[in-house]
Specification:
- With 513 residues, the protein is α+β, with helices and mostly antiparallel strands.
- The chain is 27% helix and 21% strand.
- The structure holds flavin-adenine dinucleotide.
Length: 513
């Protein structure tokens, strides 16, 4: 993890020679590049920066380069985004790389062609921020390796590894990490955003456990940044979200002894019980063990308990506290407060401290976020009274056009975030994290669902002290990214960008001023 560049190494491995090929004069255009389809959007094939217009450069070992106008362009473009609501933004080309050296060559290709670079790891950013008009999208989806050093309790993971894959590799060594909650999210964008992960009460936001990053910078050099080397890049990588001036090819992570037993309780309350349960939750979270994580959703119930409900398609207040302990007894004690909650007799489902696996936890989350589906998402950090926020959202939810639309709320003690952002750009959080997930299936229903979501997001704004960069709708306003950081942090982020990428080789955050 030395902080020096690796240019010399690349020269000796022949990657430099490949770069000559990529920068070589354009080859004759292919027939497939000449005729854009409507699906490929206006201007396809006539873009002066597109491979179709200039001819396709040799790709050598770089991997798959798909240019706008190619027959497989639209399918490749859509594959970049997990959300079925793929934005109308059209890169000039998409390159799927297979190694660090490929990433170096991709940066050189972009520079030679005057294409700005956007990056894609797992494609789970809700607004599809890896798709940018006229740029080169570098798709890292093949970079999924991880190596674990159990003695040192560190792991080195490539950016497109998914939560389940990372946890399986660590679990085999008795280790774990505050991975994201959903199985298929990749760590690339998740860690950059801060990472609201499992067992956060004990392990903190995931970016806090990033010890170093390997990245390819705007000059096409592979470097390592940590607290001693390129400390400002390291600082930025821990919370900036999108808009990082480099491509991270590997995260060096601190990992933790895995909890020996995971205890899951599930309570399903009618929505008219918010007035009873939410004030109690607010007053109780401060006294819960840090090993307890509590998630709540105003939504359809989790599939595993639907059979217990007379109307399984209705929305309820679903509460699922999880205890990350070392024995069923420890978990039982940690989860015990939920068994004396007021209104427990009105809970329609009451499951206490079932011993579950990580796979079970991921399965619950996967069911809550179905795919494929069309999503429009907004999130707020809030200091407001949770009941005021949730009762307002309950009323709105009753008018939501789609039955799949839901509201997530995490009520926590005041988070220990450093608003001076001394060590990490991640600098904004509040005791209520509330997200409106507008979810529907059919593109014909876009307008009505998005209108509902716009109105709900506006209402959420009155309660917000800021947004989480990993989930907020960056396209909602040109200052939305800035509003995801403590005061002054956005300006510092721009200064670091300017220092390492003065020519704007990499795109900034989508839609931002
Ligand atoms: C179903 C679902 C569940 C989620 N659950 C959680 C959760 O539990 N906790 C949480 O915190 N968030 C969660 N998120 C949000 C998620 O963490 C972010 O959207 C994150 O950006 C996804 O990472 P990705 O690599 O898949 O995204 P991508 O769309 O691939 O990347 C997003 C952006 O990050 C940047 N980026 C990604 N990788 C790199 C890299 N290697 N180098 C440089 N820049 C890069 C790029 O600017 C890119 O455009 C969830 C999202 C979904 C869709």
């Amino acid at each position: 993890m030395a902080g020096h560049t690796r240019r010399d190494f690349l020269k000796t491995t022949g990657a430099g020679a490949l770069a000559v090929g990529l920068g070589a004069p354009a080859q004759p255009p292919t027939a497939s590049g000449a005729a854009p389809t409507a699906a490929q959007g206006p201007g396809a094939g006539t873009d002066p920066q597109s491979g179709a217009g200039q001819g396709r450069p040799p790709t050598g070992n770089l991997g798959t380069v798909v240019w706008r106008g190619d027959p497989d362009y639209e399918a490749t473009r859509r594959r970049m985004v997990w959300n079925a609501r793929v934005p109308d933004r059209f890169p000039a080309a998409i390159v799927t790389v297979s190694s660090d050296q490929d990433v170096v060559e991709a940066v050189k290709l972009a520079r030679a062609r005057g294409l700005q670079i956007s990056v894609r790891s797992g494609g789970h950013n809700w607004v599809g921020s890896s798709l940018r008009d006229g740029g080169l999208t570098v798709d890292l989806s093949r970079l999924t390796n991880v190596t674990v050093d159990p003695a040192a309790r560190v792991a080195a993971a490539q950016p497109a590894i998914r939560n389940t894959e990372l946890m399986a590799a660590l679990g085999a060594q008795g280790l774990a990490f505050p991975s994201g909650h959903c199985p298929t999210v990749a760590i690339g964008g998740y860690l950059l955003a801060g990472g609201e992960g499992w067992n956060q009460g004990s392990w903190g936001p995931a970016c806090q456990s990033v010890l170093a990053i390997d990245l390819v910078n705007a000059d096409g050099e592979l470097i390592t940044a940590d607290a001693q080397h390129y400390p400002d890049l390291y600082w930025m990588a821990r919370g900036v979200g999108a808009g990082f001036p480099g491509i991270i090819t590997r995260y060096h992570l601190r990992v933790y002894p895995a909890p020996k037993v995971l205890g899951l309780s599930i309570y399903v309350y009618p929505l008219d019980q918010l007035e009873t349960i939410v004030p109690w939750l607010k007053s109780t979270v401060g006294s819960l063990a840090p090993s307890v994580e509590m998630m709540s959703l105003m939504s359809q119930p989790p599939p595993s308990v639907r059979g217990q409900l007379a109307d399984p398609s209705a929305r309820y207040f679903n509460l699922w506290p999880v205890a990350f302990g070392d024995s069923p007894e420890e978990n039982a004690a940690a989860l015990a407060p939920f068994e004396s909650a007021p209104g427990l007799d009105r809970a329609l489902v009451r499951q206490f401290n079932a011993s579950v696996s990580w796979s079970d936890l991921f399965a619950i989350e996967a069911a809550a976020f179905p795919e494929p589906a069309r999503y429009d998402v907004e999130v707020a950090w809030s200091n407001a009274d949770p009941l005021a926020v949730l009762s307002d959202l309950r009323t709105r939810l009753a008018r939501a056009p789609s039955p799949d639309t839901q509201i997530l709320a995490a009520i926590t003690p005041p988070p220990t975030v450093d608003p001076t952002a001394r060590e990490m750009a991640y600098s904004l959080a509040a005791p209520l994290y509330v997200t409106s997930y507008c979810i529907w299936k059919d593109a014909a229903d876009d307008a009505v669902n998005m209108a509902w979501q716009r109105e709900t997001a506006r209402a959420l704004e009155q309660f917000a002290v800021g947004h989480y960069i990993g989930e907020t709708d960056l396209t909602a306003s040109p200052t939305r990214a800035a509003e995801s950081f403590a005061p002054g942090v956005w300006e510092r982020l721009q200064a670091v960008r300017q220092k390492y990428d003065p020519q704007g080789v990499f795109f900034g955050h989508v839609g931002q001023a």
